[in-house]
Design goal:
Number of helices: 4
Largest sheet: 2 strands, antiparallel
Strand order of the largest sheet: 1-2
Distance between the termini: 87 Å
CATH topology of one domain: Four Helix Bundle (Hemerythrin (Met), subunit A)
Number of strands: 2
CATH class of one domain: Mainly Alpha
Structural class: mainly alpha
Shape: flat
Strand content: under 5%
CATH architecture of one domain: Up-down Bundle
Radius of gyration: 27 Å
Length: 179
C-alpha cells in the first residue's frame, strides 16, 4: 500500500516538473523578440532636455542618417553572407574572402564617417551639454558584445623587441627564424 502511494506521488511530481518546464519553454518560445530600436525611436526629449524644434531637427537628422547608411549596411551583410558561403566551399578562396573583408571594412569606415558628419551637424542646434548627453545616449544604445568575448585590445606590456608577431597572432622568437 505504501509503495503505491509513493509511486503515485513520484508520478505526480514528475508530471508537475514536466508541466513547469514545458510552460517555461512555451513562454520563452512565444515571447516576442524585440529588435534594436531604430535611431528615431531614441527618447531625445527628457534625457537631453530638448525643445520641440530641437527634437524635430534631431529626429530628421537621425532618419536621414538611417536612410543614408541602410544600403551600406545591407551591402556589408551581403558580403558577410558571401564570406560564409565561401568558407563552406572546398578549397577555400582566401584571396576572395580577404577582398570581401576589405570591402566590409571600407563600408564600416564609410558608415563611421557619415555618423561623424551627422554628429557634427548636431552642433548647429544642440548646446555642448546636450551634445555630451546625446553622445552618452548613443553609447548606451549600442548593442553589448557577445558574452565571453574579450576586448579587441590587449592589456599588459608590449612584447619584447626580439619577438616578432606572426599573422595568426602567435609570437615567435626572431632568433629562431632562419634567414
Amino acid at each position: 500500500m505504501k509503495l503505491k502511494i509513493l509511486i503515485g506521488i513520484l508520478i505526480f511530481l514528475i508530471a508537475l516538473n514536466l508541466a513547469t518546464i514545458g510552460s517555461y519553454l512555451y513562454v520563452q518560445w512565444r515571447a516576442p523578440r524585440f529588435p534594436a530600436a531604430p535611431p528615431e525611436a531614441l527618447p531625445p526629449g527628457p534625457e537631453l532636455r530638448l525643445d520641440r524644434a530641437q527634437q524635430q531637427q534631431l529626429r530628421m537628422l537621425l532618419r536621414d542618417f538611417k536612410q543614408e547608411i541602410q544600403p551600406l549596411e545591407r551591402r556589408a551583410q551581403e558580403l558577410e553572407e558571401r564570406i560564409f558561403e565561401l568558407l563552406q566551399k572546398e578549397p577555400v578562396s582566401r584571396e576572395e574572402i580577404e577582398q570581401h573583408l576589405q570591402e566590409i571594412s571600407r563600408l564600416r569606415f564609410e558608415i563611421s564617417k557619415r555618423m561623424l558628419a551627422k554628429f557634427e551637424e548636431t552642433r548647429e542646434f544642440l548646446s555642448p551639454v546636450q551634445q555630451k548627453r546625446f553622445y552618452d545616449l548613443l553609447m548606451r544604445a549600442r548593442p553589448a558584445p557577445p558574452e565571453g568575448r574579450r576586448p579587441a585590445f590587449r592589456r599588459g606590456p608590449a612584447a619584447p623587441p626580439h619577438l616578432a608577431p606572426f599573422p595568426d597572432g602567435e609570437a615567435v622568437d626572431s632568433n629562431e627564424i632562419d634567414p
